[in-house]
């Protein structure tokens, strides 16, 4: 038995269930329930229509067909809506193991530089930085290296094609060392002076195991009344023990730098072999670490300090060099290649 009102009830029930269908599987079940060939609700409606009195059949048949098309169309529409929603929401597999985020860290050279700064800060030094584009006066002249000095040889110095004129100064070279900062600082400050100045320096060198055209240094300068060679030795020996380890022995070898007199190079006992001699120290038991000396009176004169009243010491060390020594790295270029397998060996 069927009539238009019972067809509308079927539609209402269907719509109710459709509203609750939340997945493809729900929709498939719904379709089976209403349009299934054997026992679908609409299928039995069709059978009832066929059994209705002949006069009612055409009208009921039209209504039943319309109901069937409506149900079919609404299920399809709903399926598309669910699919669109599904692709908009990223699927997360909560059973997958978590991904370890890559954490950044400071480059080994930055770590080295900070370690060096820290040691000197603790000794009461100030950290100051200077320009990498430098003029002839600060890089050479005021450091007692006149125009014909061999250190200015084109082999070593990178000259700028044309001078760079900025508000603060005229640059003609890429600084070949951080020593120019001694001059800049003394020009702007009166003694006492106690500074370290880290930064990049440049030289016309080809790449090999121990050379790169750019590297970094830390300059040190102490000036005051009654500063002695003993202060220099004590300071650098204390630095060496702090930086390389408490058992480090030091020795000073006479050397020459135009801006210091006397000049000395500092060697530390080889931490690889403890001074017995090995591959790292080339069988000498010692490693060359830095250059140093008592500030030359000509340097004081250049900055207007009275050399009769003040004395001081200075030193300069290569950051890559001490890093190579400290970590036993055999190729300086590794510091610049950005290879994570190398860099990850220096957890900060
Ligand atoms: N400027 C030297 C270099 O580049 C290092 C150096 C030596 C700095 C002696 C100094 C010093 O201040 O006194 O190799």
Q: What topology emerges from the helices and strands here?
A:
Blueprint: H1 4-20, H2 24-35, H3 41-50, H4 57-88, H5 108-122, E1 126-127, E2 133-134, H6 136-139, E3 159-165, E4 170-174, H7 180-188, E5 193-202, E6 214-224, H8 229-244, E7 250-257, E8 260-269, E9 286-295, H9 297-303, E10 311-318, H10 319-327, H11 340-343
Helix pairs in contact: 1-4, 2-4, 3-4, 5-10
Bound molecules: 3,4-dihydroxyphenylalanine (DAH).
3,4-dihydroxyphenylalanine binds at residues 177, 179, 219, 257, 260, 291-293, 314-316.
Summary tags:
single chain, 348 residues, alpha+beta, BirA Bifunctional Protein, domain 2, 2 domains, 7-stranded mixed beta sheet, 3-stranded antiparallel beta sheet, 11 helices, 10 strands, rod-shaped, binds 3,4-dihydroxyphenylalanine
Helix-strand topology string: HHHHHEEHEEHEEHEEEHEHH
Spatial strand arrangement across the major sheet: 1-5-6-10-9-8-7
Query: Which class of secondary structure composition applies to the elements?
Result: alpha+beta
Describe the main β-sheet briefly. Answer: 7 strands, mixed
Helical run tally: 11
Query: Roughly how many Å is the radius of gyration?
Result: 42 Å
How many domains, as an integer?
A: 2
Q: What distance separates the N and C termini?
A: 84 Å
The CATH homology group name of the largest domain: Bira Bifunctional Protein, Domain 2
Query: Whole-number average pLDDT?
Result: 92
What's the CATH architecture name of the largest domain?
A: 2-Layer Sandwich
CATH class of the largest domain: Alpha Beta
Strand content: 15-25%
């Amino acid at each position: 038995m069927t009539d238009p009102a019972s067809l509308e009830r079927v539609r209402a029930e269907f719509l109710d269930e459709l509203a609750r269908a939340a997945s493809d599987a729900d929709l498939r079940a719904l379709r089976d329930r209403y349009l299934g060939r054997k026992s679908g609700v609409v299928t039995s409606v069709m059978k009832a229509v066929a059994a209705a009195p002949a006069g009612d059949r055409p009208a009921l048949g039209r209504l039943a067909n319309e109901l069937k098309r409506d149900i079919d169309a609404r299920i399809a529409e709903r399926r598309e809506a669910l699919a669109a929603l599904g692709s908009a929401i990223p699927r997360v597999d909560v059973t997958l193991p978590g991904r370890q985020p890559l954490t950044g860290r400071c480059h080994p050279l930055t770590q080295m530089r900070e370690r060096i700064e820290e040691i000197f800060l603790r000794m009461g030094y100030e950290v100051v930085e200077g320009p990498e584009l430098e003029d002839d006066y600060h890089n050479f002249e005021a450091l007692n290296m006149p125009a014909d000095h061999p250190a200015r040889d084109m082999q070593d110095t990178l000259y700028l094609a044309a001078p760079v004129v900025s508000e603060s100064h005229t640059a003609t070279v890429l600084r070949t060392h951080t020593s120019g900062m001694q001059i800049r600082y003394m020009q702007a400050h009166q003694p006492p002076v106690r500074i370290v100045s880290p930064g990049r320096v440049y030289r016309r060198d080809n790449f090999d195991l121990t050379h790169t055209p750019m590297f970094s240094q830390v300059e040190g300068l102490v000036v005051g009344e009654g500063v002695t060679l003993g202060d220099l030795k004590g300071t650098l020996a204390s630095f060496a023990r702090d930086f390389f380890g408490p058992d480090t022995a030091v020795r000073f070898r006479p050397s020459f730098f135009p801006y210091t007199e006397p000049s000395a190079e500092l060697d530390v006992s080889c931490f690889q072999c403890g001074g017995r001699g090995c591959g790292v120290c080339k069988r000498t038991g010692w490693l060359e670490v830095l250059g140093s000396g008592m500030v030359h009176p000509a340097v004081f004169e250049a900055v207007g300090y009275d050399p009769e009243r003040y004395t001081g010491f200075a030193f300069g060390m290569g950051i890559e060099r001490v890093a190579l020594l400290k970590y036993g790295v055999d190729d300086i270029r590794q510091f610049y290649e950005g290879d994570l397998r190398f860099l990850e060996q220096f957890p900060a």
